[in-house]
Amino acid sequence: MGLTTAKSASEKRLPIREVNPVELLGANDTNLKLIENHLEVALYVRGDELIIRGDESKLVLVENIVAEMIAVLNRKRFIDKDDVLTIIRLSQTGKSVLGEAGLDSVVLFTRSEVIKPRTPGQERYFASTTDHDMVFGLGPAGTGKTYMAVAFAVSALKNREVKKIILTRPAVEAGERLGFLPGDLREKVDPYLAPLYDALFDMMPHDKVRLLMDQKTIEIVPLAYMRGRTLDNAFIILDEAQNTTLMQMKMFLTRMGVNSKIIVTGDPTQIDLPKHEESGLIQAARILKEVDGIAFVEFDEGDIVRHNLVKRIIQAYDQPKDS
What we know:
Layout: E1 10-15, H1 21-25, H2 30-39, E2 42-46, E3 49-54, H3 56-76, H4 81-92, E4 108-109, E5 114-115, H5 120-131, E6 134-138, H6 145-158, E7 164-169, H7 185-192, H8 194-203, H9 206-214, E8 218-222, E9 234-238, H10 246-253, E10 261-266, H11 280-287, E11 294-298, H12 308-318
Parallel strand pairs: 6-10, 6-11, 7-8, 7-9, 9-10
Antiparallel strand pairs: 1-3, 2-3, 4-5
Helix pairs in contact: 2-4, 3-4, 6-8, 10-11
């Protein structure tokens, strides 16, 4: 293995005894080949040392990349191609995946970025999901409730903490019903569930998402299709939960099986149910608040991470109106 063979090339040796070398190097040394191809260096393993050969200017950069790979592996117990590519990209721009807050705050590595909490509310969300098997994330649009929940789920799947991801929504949206949409069931459902697809495709390659969906490792389904199921070894997300009925919420929460996590997200101010019908989310927040093992995280306007106008729009709608 190796791209740089000139006699003038400098050499550095790094100990790698503190991690499983197979996990660090990747299948067929895939991870090392990524570093070689991007930085034009040569990497060799001799015993419990990694030998780096290349221009002097590249050695420190590669050493930093390997150090961060080891840190990720120690923290998350697993590192894949996307993680390595992200570490390389950030290192080349002078950044570190460790950052000021440290690696413990990293939720997920993608090919383009490191996903980590960006607001106090998201930090509470991350901590609550780490410590609890059921978490409710409540708050206005744009606070990252759904996006971060999907990141938590993808991270758990990548780290082999769960065997599947289930993403679901109640089929009520802004006064419309699926029956009014054209096409067959799949054509009706897919546009409605688009925000969940968007989050997944932002975090994983499209072909990998499609493969995992074909294998039923990732399922995106309307809430009605959850009835009668018991979900073991799964990370389950109920999005837009303010539009669940009382019976739907109870049905969903009792689907939870062994070694599973549930996140419920919703905005209590955006209920699209008929006026006479109480939201299952509102009831759940009222009666489950003190149940041990369940966490409630409330987001506010300060947690909004979309365009600045989103925060101003929400503030304007929240202002008292003249009668």
